[in-house]
Amino acid sequence: MQAPVAHKILGETCWLSAHRSLFWEGQNILVLSDMHLGKTGHFRKAGIAVPQAVLKEDMQRLLHLLQYFKPQRLLVVGDMFHSRANNELQFFTRWREQFGQVQFTLVRGNHDILANDWYASAGIEVIESALHIGKFTFTHDYCHSTDGYSFCGHIHPGVTVHGAGKQSLRFPCFYFGANHCILPAFGKFTGLATVHPQPGDAVYAVVEDSLVPIHHA
After folding, report:
1. Which domain holds residue 190?
2. Per-residue pLDDT tens digits for 174-195
């Protein structure tokens, strides 16, 4: 795994990981979006054969991030869970017990429809709209226009990389605009929405276990 990449925002250092997360050094917060835990189980209940190994691989990546950065807080910017309770969420609650010292905060996304008492029992603080910490604002489905800088998820951003001839590939990415960042989907069982960088934007493609600057301010 490539070492995290430093990205400066309003004088704050954020470390980008190819594990599709961002670590805010000044506040000791690990930030990610769109985990969609339970999505594979949701599809299996509908008769679509999706291996449970997808969930376990996502949780292993999160385990690595928590052990590497040792954050005080894990902040999920929406869609931590995909749907209603299933066996995969029971797997998560058992996994969560390993990190009782880490504060888990969820900015509720459109897929986060579990009952409030379920989140409470799992030790997850739920924020309904937007979370403001210092210069930064965290939302799910759109980035606020503020005097500071905002972070959101929801669209699962991807960037197209063109090769020789007409060949092209799409990869998940971090998208940094002038006053907002769109985070990549943490869950690998998700689609991609192509973003189109503008002059001055910074984009890092997640290519296997590395971050590749595609468009840098």
Report:
1. 5-215
2. 999 999 999 999 987 567 889 9
